[in-house]
Amino acid sequence: MLAELSYSRALQTPVTGGTPQTGNVPVPPAPADEATIMAGWEGGISAPRVSVMCFAFNHGDYIRMALDGFLMQRTRFAFEIVVHDDASTDGTREIIEEYAARYPNIIRPILQDVNQYSQHIWPITFCMPVMRGDIIAYCEGDDYWIKADKLARQVALFDANPTATVCFHPAIEFDEHSGDHTIICRYAETVQKISAEAVIGLRGASIPSPSLAFRRMDSSVEAMLESYRTAPIMDFFLQAYMALLGETLYYEDTACVYRRNAKGSWTSQQKEVEAELRYQREMLSAIDVFHASTRHLPNVDTLYIPLYHYFKQYVMAPERPHQRLSNFYRGLGFISHMKRGRVLKLVRHDVMDKVARRARVGHKGEAA
């Protein structure tokens, strides 16, 4: 039986800015030709075991590396690469078309003429109906894979653990601004389970997005897509939904690179105060709706952990007390399905904890 990593243990592991690394950041090699990649496959491409799901938008500087990382995979099963371009204007589409022409049996492009994200439509909406694999491996176009056995290891873990719905591993986090790179999300040196509370409580940061693989659950696809259709980000809700459906597996190999502050990325956009406030408001509403959609699943109340995190951030963002009080009432207004009384209970617990800590500091000062 695998050991399970708890939320409290996961909190002790860096999910960003982790262990500094020296030397160059690894990059994938130039890919082999299509016939060579497919030569060792057992079974045809018409029934791939894995679908690689890649989202791209203005990733012209990065998309080749992402595609090379997919094509470097050495497996005994067939895999396909479904790459969605959301009407890029920087040459990303042309690079995808070039690779699709070279690997027509492996790469299946979805090319938009009109940007869908601006219309609040997630790329996964277009990818899920056409992907044929029973395992989905996710990686955005500005991240990439660096180990040739990544897919093979994840599929083997899914096969050995039939109740698992998620599998992931640590990542190298590469900061585009500073050039630094660190190891993140290295929870253990062996294969372990990670609790749903840890996945959800860390608000999507517990799993580096290019490390994520999940089991396709056909009966839940529509419900999954609907549960976070209005959310400001996808990764957290995708991870949370799949973690609520079954077990989450972790293995120790650092098999991908996650770019922080890449051009046009989400991390590069969350800078302005108003943008952060808007994000907090949208997350409060989205978690509330997501909870209503998933309330029949075990462990769903772990969603109060991220809900309270964003509520507290939203309330404490202004400097002036009267503005914080105003945000307090506004924040509660964004919660219509989950229990506001439970949020207020968390507020009271937080306040009492701070009072107790201050009292302990005061007693120590008097004793000195």
From TrEMBL:
Domain of life: Bacteria
Pfam families: Glycos_transf_2
UniProtKB keywords: Transferase
MF annotations from Gene Ontology: transferase activity
Keyword Amino-acid biosynthesis carried by entry: no
Domain Glycosyltransferase 2-like: residue ranges: 51-182
InterPro entries from the UniProt entry: Glyco_trans_2-like, Glycosyltransf_2, Nucleotide-diphossugar_trans
Protein name: Glycosyltransferase
